[in-house]
Specification:
about 280 residues; Rossmann fold; alpha/beta; 12 strands; single chain; five-stranded mixed β-sheet
Length: about 280
């Protein structure tokens, strides 16, 4: 959005997007205010305690200018999705936005926030620890029963269920990149795709040795989704899938949507749980 003068060691940070919120917490900084959707913490036990005493300044999609102003921040962090309110924000405090396109940029956003806050050393340490965990996973995975049972590289499919559609999540997404970082293969048809909405007749495209299935919607929509998942499981076309027949379909929490090194480690915990420990 141009140039801004960021204070050294800012003490009163406000975040208005989920990436910056989680990154700031990962850096050990307690923000004075955060934008946050009402049900956002439902599946994020790893964040709940850290946010229990922090002022909520509205939803991610509609932060309150009045609440932000009252907090007297010395730095505001967000995404270019917040471009329309940037003129208002920058009158309150120095505001830095990231040029956002997709959740696949989570590592770039982490480093961008780190540079802004003068915490690149901390960010590098976090990523080094993540890399060590990935190497540990690959070592354990190579000797796991799940890996030995297959005559080829274990292929993982990632499916997101919406109220009205089912989507295959490809490599160029938050969860897709973590699966790739972990050295897991994807079915060849999914390797070539961007996010693909599929019909019931195209369910075979969602198959793999293992299927991770997840959703991320409001409480009301979640009820619709659970009904949809129940119908999906009863469908003969779903029951023909290899992963279904092998009993290797796992329903994941909504945090598989993203957004940070904290969530990446939570997803990696899930990979350990279902692909190594089980």
């Amino acid at each position: 959005m141009g140039e801004t003068c960021v204070p050294l060691n800012p003490q009163r940070v406000v975040t208005i997007d989920p990436f910056s919120l989680e990154n700031v917490l990962a850096f050990g900084i307690q923000p004075v205010g955060v934008a946050m959707s009402p049900d956002w913490l439902d599946d994020r036990a790893y964040l709940r305690d850290r946010l229990s005493s922090i002022e909520v300044i509205g939803d991610f999609t509609q932060p309150s200018m009045e609440k932000i102003l009252a907090l007297k921040p010395d730095l505001i962090l967000g995404l270019t999705e917040d471009e329309e309110i940037y003129p208002q924000l920058t009158k309150i405090a120095p505001t830095v936005l990231f040029d956002f396109e997709s959740s696949a940029q989570w590592k770039e956003i982490l480093m961008h926030n780190a540079v802004t806050l003068g915490m690149t050393d901390v960010a590098n340490q976090l990523m080094a620890a993540y890399s060590d965990r990935l190497n540990d996973f690959k070592t354990q995975m190579s000797t796991s029963a799940a890996f030995r049972e297959e005559n080829h590289s274990l292929e993982v499919s990632i499916i997101r269920v919406y109220p009205n559609i089912i989507s295959i999540y490809p490599r160029d997404t938050f969860a897709g990149l973590i699966v790739e970082d972990a050295g897991l293969a994807r079915p060849s048809v999914q390797d070539q795709l961007r996010q693909l909405d599929i019909s019931k007749e195209s369910l075979h495209l969602a198959d793999g040795d293992i299927i991770f299935l997840w959703s991320s919607e409001s409480d009301q929509a979640q009820q619709e989704i659970q009904t949809k998942i129940a119908k999906l499981k009863a469908d003969p076309l779903w029951q023909q899938l290899n992963a279904v027949q092998q009993g290797k379909v796992y329903e994941m929490p909504s945090y598989w949507i993203g957004y940070s090194i904290l969530t990446a480690n939570a997803v990696l915990d899930d990979l350990f749980r279902y692909l190594v420990e089980e």
